[in-house]
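In this section we walk through a basic example: taking a raw amino acid sequence and producing a predicted 3D structure, encoded as discrete structure tokens. The instruction is simple. Fold the sequence below.
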Amino acid sequence: MEKIRSTTVLAIKHNGMVAIGADGQATLGNTVAKSNVKKIRKLGDGKVVTGFAGSTADAFTLLDRFDEKLSNYSGNLKRAAVELAKDWRTDRYLRKLEAMMIVADKSEVLVVSGTGDVLEPDNDIASIGSGSMYARSAALALKKHASDLSAEEMVREGLTIAADICIYTNHNLVVEVVE
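The resulting token sequence is shown next.
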């Protein structure tokens, strides 16, 4: 069984705004399986936006669990992320899930992994997935040399550059600004 490869997710906090976006491609072997997968989801009454990379079914399971944690901890993003990461690492069922997540609210961006990591990214730029290093590199350059752009514009441009380089990333972008 060939592994599905896909996804570039990029989040940037810049000038008091947080934006997160993803491409829409899912690849099976050397074939594009789907070109318009929606990898960005709003949770917590729209106050939290998440992006995921990895197995879609696994990511949906994690998104549901994260939404529960947000409810349990009154929308506290960091606490919900830490509690999800603990469960993900220790729960016999959850630890088999293959995905990563970026979670963001209006004030912070976090990367959550199945190894128990909850990372606050350097430079307020987070990226995951196949084209993540291309998108991250572009975002770092944009923040340094085009700081007049908004967070949303930087996410769009970073993902576009990644899509131009990475064969597992396409130009079908979904970008959300966290309000």
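Looking at the output, two observations stand out. The longest strand covers residues 8-14. Helices lie at 56-72, 77-90, 132-145, 151-165. In the next section we compare this with other chains.
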